[in-house]
Amino acid sequence: MDWDSLLPIILGLLAVVGLPLALWSLRKTGGSKVEEFCQHLQQIGVKAATLPRDDPQSAAERKRSWGKKPIATIRVNGRNMESINVVGVASQQGTHYYVDYVVALPGFVLSKKKKVKLTLKKSSPVKGVVTDVEWKGDEHLAQRLNYDFGLKSRLLEADAGSMKGGLTVYPEPKRGHARMRTGYFLPTAEQFEAVDLVARHVREWY
C-alpha cells in the first residue's frame, strides 16, 4: 500500500470532519464566552450589556465572513470604545476566540491608516520579565502612543505580557470603526483601563 498517496486523502478527510466540529463547538460554547466576558466587565466596574441579536449594530457586525463571525456584541457606556465583540474563528484546527474592542470613527477619513501593534521588551528572551513596551506600525499613531508615558506606565503596571495575543489596532474606515484585537482573556481592571486609553488615542488619531 502506497501510504504517500493516501496521506493527502487522509488529511483531506480530517479537514472535512474538523471544520464542522469546530463550527459545532463555536455554536455550543460561544454563548457562554460572551456571558462570561460581559459578567466579568460588570464585576470590574464597567457598564456593559449584551446587545440582542436583532439590534441593528449587533446584526451589522454579524455580516462578516462566516469563518470570523462575532458571536455577540457587548455595548459599553461612558468609555472611549463603543462596543466589544467576542469573535469566534472556526478552522480545521479547532475554534479560537478573540476580543475586538470597537472604536467608532468619524464619517470621513482623509488619509489611509495602517495597523499598529503593541510589542514587548523583556529582560531575557526566555521567561524574562517585561521591561518596556513599544508600538509599531502606522507612524503617526505609533508615535502618539509611544509618547504617552502615562499609558506606558499603565501597561507595565497592568502586566501587558499577560494580555493574551497582545494588542493590535486595525483601522477599518469603510466599516466606520477601528478594531483593537486581543486574544480571548478576562482583563483586569487595570488592563481594561489601559485598553480604553488606547481607544481614546485611536479616536483622536482620526
Q: Would you list the SSEs in sequence order as H and E?
A: HEHEEEEEHHEEH
Number of helices: 5
In terms of DSSP E residues, the strand content is: 25-35%
Detail the poorly predicted runs.
9-28
Structural account:
It is a single chain. The protein has helices at residues 3-43, 56-61, 139-146, 149-157, 189-205, and strands spanning 48-50, 68-76, 83-91, 94-104, 116-122, 130-137, 168-172, 177-183. The chain is α+β, with helices and mostly antiparallel strands and 206 residues long. Strands 1-2-3-4-8-7-5-6 form an eight-stranded antiparallel beta sheet. Strand 7 and strand 8 (177-183) form a beta hairpin. It is globular. The model is unreliable at 9-28 (pLDDT under 50).
Secondary-structure map with pairings?
Elements: H1 3-43, E1 48-50, H2 56-61, E2 68-76, E3 83-91, E4 94-104, E5 116-122, E6 130-137, H3 139-146, H4 149-157, E7 168-172, E8 177-183, H5 189-205
Antiparallel strand pairs: 1-2, 2-3, 3-4, 4-8, 5-6, 5-7, 7-8
Helix pairs in contact: 3-5, 4-5
In summary, what is this structure?
The chain is α+β, with helices and mostly antiparallel strands and 206 residues long. It is built from 5 helices and 8 strands; from the N terminus they run H-E-H-E-E-E-E-E-H-H-E-E-H.
